[in-house]
Specification:
The structure holds 2 protein chains of 2 kinds. By secondary structure, chain A is mostly helical. Chain A has 13 helices and 1 strand; from the N terminus they run αααβαααααααααα. The chains are: A mainly alpha, B mainly alpha.
């Protein structure tokens, strides 16, 4: 029964993840007064791309095809570690968040290589920026998790989030608020949302993540889009678990509450995107530094408490 | 122990036979490489016996070689065996690889090179196995001399001669510091046998620690003592660079670990000192690696970075065990030692991969390479494994050791305040190093193997022969194996920790790491499975369809050329700009001018900042000061003899 429940939660995450970008786009359309894309657009896109025949550049090698597959495999593997609605993932263990960070780094490494494989100046540009931002966002991510680990005294994501209760917010509100802010900044940067990157931009020169996928098409592009939605799910789930700690006995209630929180976070991303323009490329590291400083402050407060 | 003695014997005798084979390259190759292989195989037997059969620790005293203050004895405890393991593994891989690499030396006499290579291995093995300071220093100096001779292999190049000179000076300075260390320890314990070393009283212990940090730090390449490393390692032939960067610098780490064992209990500031040295090495190493234009220099700087990671682990372990957190200390020590082993494997692989690239194209200049993945498919695959491993990515071994150190620092975070604050520094530095190393090796792999060739040198490149490929494939397989089944390496690492720091941290390491490592192993296997599934799904989706081939989409530009690609410098530029105050990159830039620009130029050079700004001026001052004493050195033999007699008399009088 336990195995079945875990499998259900895992499958639900895999199935529902493409809904998040849809919600973000609905919110953005609402703000702009447009009709907007259907909420399920990404599902249609994935189905269409899976049937298409790709065009490969003559410059590319197998690395170009391996990049999207690696990104998707790493994201699915990371979801296996992630808690869902207050329940541990199938692969939860002491230090599991380190494994998630390793998986994200692996996926980034392969994506960057796939971009460099095309020999395109634009893709190289995107790859260079991606590698640069990672240098700032990774420490911020680490420190936020370190602060959470220090607040809860736990080593695993599931442990951390299970021992977070509304009471921990009462006791350590500044720390948790700073951690949440840092995680939100890292989420925006890692998932290439405004203000770090604009997923809807139309000029190659200003793209970061999209430009790395310029030459990908067909199943590879589907892998990239699906992997990106899984990554958004992952970060949103981390924030949901940190901001809204609530555990009741019933997993149906917890799951529904968790899904509502996920929708809320996607809406917050949409509001952030509608309310502000993207930063100049040179300013993005400063934003990430801001996240890093939030996380460091959280950790210092907690260590001094 | 018999096997160990035999392996030394085989290595030494094959060394001299190879030398005697004179100009016959083919014979030198068979004797040299064959001797190295056989010697490594014999040595591996003794090492594996110690690591996997409990109670196999063996002492082989040689009373015939009794010296003042002790006897020249050998001993292989688990710590020595743990460091000997990569010596023998990498020697075997490098020998197979070198058989082809040196064989193509273009009519060079390779007998001397093989002689030095086998002597280097033998002396490294003796460094790890000696149980006496005199024997240790003898082996240490033999190692320095044989590696020096290998560094000057391409002595017709001025740059190589310069690198070798710097290397020689650094080796000498390090040996002086070690003599001080052993004098202090010998004076306090009355013997030079390692087993009987005792902690000196009071300030002498701190002096001994500093001497060890200086002497062993010089060999390990700790910032700011690393200046010789990026000069000497790239100058040597690639399989020698692999052994030097992979194993030889670990003698410094080994020495530090041993010294910590002798000097226990530790002073409060030693842990932070080690940790800060590691922090500086890690960050400086990776930032400079990112700015390099030459593949082998990049790899050499990345060795500095990895030594930094190892020292951070050791330093945090020392800090934590001072505050009584044994589990944290065990994790940090175990992670650091395992990282030493892992680094041997992937750095050896990467240096040999760089050698394959230079073998095929004649250059290691990143801006002149590109597109080699098509021309050297197998070598590029192995290099990719090494690049992923050194960037600390699952499912490779680099992730495992960094994971353990991370786990240790998260553990320290929960504990008392002092180690907790240090662990924040370690966390921050390790995370930044991880991001930077990923960028550095994505850049290296991308500009060498991916895209279009940036110069005509790459057009005729092709995969190397079976021996060199085997020399690459074996360490790549080892990296993947440890990444997938880390528990196999945890046992030996725990044994090494026990023999270095006592049974408690060793046992604590094993119990704290066992379960997480099992899960990481499951996760890594799941990742591999998912990769296979994603690939299979792609094949399924594309069944019966023929993908079209076309040019790369370059924003609609119809005639892209290879020179329009993003190069290694452009890829790193956002980060190198960020670290400009440290890197002090020098450059010329003549931008296009006017409506019909005739030409433009852009040139940057990543200088050796520490050498140029500190060591070169210091050396100049030293030389000026020494010049005042030049009247002592006038070339008259009779006065030199008088000096010697005078010195001897003074010694005699002092002893009376």
């Amino acid at each position: 029964m336990e195995t079945l429940e875990t499998a259900t939660r895992f499958a639900a995450a895999l199935l529902l993840a493409p809904l998040l970008p849809g919600i973000v786009n609905r919110v953005k359309a609402l703000f702009a007064g447009r009709k907007g894309r259907p909420t399920l657009q990404l599902y249609y896109d994935l189905a269409k791309l899976a049937r298409k025949v790709p065009v490969y550049s003559r410059t590319t090698t197998w690395v170009f095809k391996a990049g999207p597959a690696a990104g998707l495999a790493a994201a699915v593997c990371a979801l296996g570690v992630l808690p869902f609605g207050g329940r541990p993932g199938p692969l939860a263990f002491e230090g599991d968040f380190l494994f998630i960070i390793g998986l994200l780094a692996f996926s980034r490494f392969m994506t960057v290589l796939a971009a460099l494989d095309t020999g395109s100046a634009f893709e190289g540009m995107g790859a260079s920026r991606e590698a640069q931002f990672a240098v700032f966002s990774e420490p911020a991510f680490f420190l936020s998790l370190a602060a959470l680990s220090r607040v809860t005294g736990e080593f695993s994501l599931a442990g951390m989030f299970l021992s977070l209760t509304p009471d921990s917010w009462r006791a350590a509100a500044p720390v948790l608020a700073l951690v949440t802010a840092a995680l939100f900044i890292v989420m925006l940067a890692e998932n290439c949302r405004v203000p770090a990157d604009d997923p809807d931009t139309h000029l190659e020169l200003t793209m970061i993540h999209e430009v790395m996928a310029l030459d990908h098409g067909g199943p590879e592009l589907a892998y990239i889009l699906y992997g990106a939605s899984l990554k958004l799910w992952l970060f949103a789930a981390l924030i949901a678990a940190a901001v809204l700690p609530r555990h009741s006995g019933s997993w149906l209630y917890d799951g529904a509450f968790f899904l509502a929180a996920m929708g809320g976070i996607a809406a917050a991303v949409g509001i952030a995107e509608s309310a502000m323009a993207r930063l100049r490329m040179l300013k993005v590291p400063y934003m990430l530094m801001g996240g890093l400083i939030f996380a460091a402050l959280a950790l210092l407060f907690q260590t001094g408490r | 122990m018999v096997f160990f003695a035999l392996s030394i014997l085989v290595l030494a005798s094959s060394a001299f036979l190879a030398l005697a084979s004179g100009g016959l390259a083919a014979r030198a190759r068979i004797i040299g490489a064959g001797g190295a292989l056989l010697g490594s195989a014999l040595g591996l037997v003794s090492v594996l016996k110690v690591l996997f059969m409990t109670g196999a620790e063996a002492y082989a005293g040689w009373p015939a070689f009794s010296v003042p203050l002790g006897r020249l004895a050998l001993s292989i405890d688990p710590l020595a065996a743990f460091f000997l393991l990569p010596v023998y593994l990498l020697t075997a891989f490098a020998a197979v690889y070198g058989a082809e690499y040196l064989g193509a030396g273009g009519g060079r006499r390779t007998g001397a090179a093989w002689c030095c290579f086998n002597l280097l291995t033998a002396s490294m093995a003796l460094v790890f196995a000696s149980a006496n300071a005199v024997l240790f220093m003898l082996a240490w100096e033999a190692m320095a001399v044989s590696s020096f001779l290998l560094v000057v292999y391409d002595h017709h190049k001025e740059q190589v001669r310069r690198a070798a000179r710097i290397y020689l000076v650094a080796g000498g300075a390090g040996a002086l510091a070690l003599l001080l260390l052993f004098s202090l320890l010998g004076a306090s314990s009355g013997t030079l046998d390692f087993a009987a070393f005792a902690r000196p009283e009071g300030g002498a212990a701190a002096a001994a620690f500093l001497a060890a940090l200086l002497g062993f730090g010089l060999k390990a390449g700790v910032v700011p003592l690393h200046v010789w490393l990026p000069e000497a390692h790239p100058a040597a032939p690639s399989h020698v660079s692999a052994v030097m960067s992979g194993v030889m610098i670990k003698t410094g780490v080994y020495g530090l670990v041993r010294t910590l064992g002798w000097l226990a209990p530790w002073d409060g500031w030693w842990g932070p000192a080690l940790l800060l040295a590691g922090l500086a090495s890690g960050l400086v190493g990776v930032i400079f690696a990112l700015a390099q234009h030459d593949l082998k220099r990049l790899l050499a700087y990345s060795s500095v970075e990895n030594i930094g990671i190892i020292l951070m682990g050791l330093g945090l372990g020392v800090t934590a065990s001072a505050s009584g957190s044994t589990a944290v200390a065990g994790l940090c020590f175990g992670g650091a030692l395992l990282h030493a082993l892992n680094h041997s494997l992937f750095k050896g692989l990467l240096f040999m991969g760089a050698g394959a690239v230079m073998h095929a194209t004649g250059t290691g200049e990143l801006e002149a390479l590109g597109g080699l993945a098509k021309r050297m498919p197998r070598a590029s695959l192995y290099f990719l494994a090494g690049a992923a491993a050194i960037s600390g990515l699952p499912p490779f071994n680099g992730f495992i050791s960094e994971f353990l150190i991370f786990l240790g620092s998260f553990g320290a975070l929960r504990g008392p305040e002092a180690p907790a604050l240090w662990s924040v520094a370690v966390l921050l530095a390790l995370a930044a190093i991880g991001g930077l190393a990923g960028a550095c090796f994505a850049r290296a792999y991308g500009s060498v193997f991916l895209g279009e060739p940036r110069s005509s040198r790459c057009h005729s490149a092709h995969d190397c022969g079976a021996p060199m490929l085997a020399g690459l494939a074996l360490p790549a397989a080892a990296c993947l194996f440890i990444g997938l089944f880390p528990s196999a390496a945890a046992g030996p690492a725990a044994a090494a920790v026990s023999s270095a720091f006592g049974a408690e941290p060793g046992a604590a390491f094993l119990s704290a790491a066992e379960l997480p490592l099992a899960y990481v192993s499951a996760g890594a296997l799941a990742l591999v499975l998912l990769l296979a599934l994603a690939a299979a799904l792609r094949v399924f989706l594309l069944r019966g369809k023929v993908p079209a081939a076309g040019p790369t989409w370059d924003c609609g530009y119809a005639a892209p050329t290879a020179r329009m690609q993003y190069g290694a410098s452009s890829f790193a530029q956002p980060l190198t700009d960020f670290f400009r105050p440290l890197l002090r990159t020098a450059g010329r830039h003549a931008p296009p001018d006017g409506y019909f620009p005739r030409g433009s130029e852009f040139h940057t050079e990543a200088g050796a900042v520490f050498y140029n700004n500190f060591y070169a001026p210091a050396a100049l001052m030293l030389r000026r000061a020494a010049y005042r004493f030049s009247w002592l050195q006038h070339g008259r033999l009779q006065f030199y003899i008088l000096y010697i007699i005078g010195a001897l008399l003074a010694l005699l009088l002092w002893k009376l």
